[in-house]
């Protein structure tokens, strides 16, 4: 997670230090090679936990830096949208993410079960190279000589942006909204150790959730792009909380009394929750893009997304603390229902701070 929490550094470097006059493309090519080497190392060199962490961290660095650059490109293009098309580019981008996720989910479980981890890592090593080559197709405007000669020219506009309450308060809300405790880790052990879901079925779950995510993006793009952000956050938080409580049925095995198999219930539950979650997440991207002033797109958007990622890390750690206090382990799930209940109800806590968001 460390590379994802320092994304503003990548944005600041990209905005301030062009390579050959370009801010995005040379970095994407370089990061594609770094990512390929990292996964190749996972397939061939790794012989201990230390080297595994090193290569996974390197792969994470490649992905997170590339992600910061792509975010900046989307923000630059989104600024050209008229008000009626607000959110279209984010919808298209996350639709592409969902399609990629569907493909990966369809293949990952099967490949892992039939060919093993090394083959999966070798195949994965090709993908950053493809991303690096794809960067030659993007429109990356060459910076002027005046800007190119300055050292960190984006520092002043960035400092002004960070002092603006219209940026600070929505960012603080996003942090509070995402930092509530999570039961995801305990729930993963429950599905593998108690329900005995194998890698291929977990890949199927990922496939279903990515298809659901694509549907959620379509729903947002088709029906919700012009709905006020406050209203979307309020309703999506309440609905996601209520839907999240349905996990209690699986945790308590009540679905078996209803005659519903664990796998079918898990698939249906994941599908519905993902649709609702993606609809809730899309306004975050639209809001973040609107908050970014011109000239510091990569830096500020990366900062906002890092706040989001840091909040996710806080959510995991708070969930881990609750897991420990409630005595939930990799084999003892007696209090998992209480963990799920607390994790979902705390999602409602940030609602009083919705006033910090812009009206439109």
**What is the beta-strand fraction?**
under 5%
Shape: globular
Could you tell me the CATH topology label: Growth Hormone, Chain: A
What is Rg? 21 Å
Distance between the termini: 32 Å
CATH C-level label: Mainly Alpha
> Largest sheet, described in full?
none
Tell me the number of helical segments per DSSP (H or I, 4 or more residues long): 17
Order of helices and strands: HHHHHHHHHHHHHHHHH
Helix content: over 70%
Give the low-confidence spans.
Answer: 147-151
* Mean pLDDT over the residues: 84
Would you identify the CATH H-level superfamily?
Answer: MFS general substrate transporter like domains
Overall number of structural domains: 1
**E-strand count:** 0
Structural class of the secondary elements? Answer: mainly alpha
Structure description:
The chain has 360 residues and is an all-alpha fold. The chain has a single domain, classed as Up-down Bundle (Growth Hormone, Chain: A). It has 17 helices and no strands. The chain starts with a helix and ends in a 15-residue tail after the last helix. Mean pLDDT is 84; it is low at 147-151.
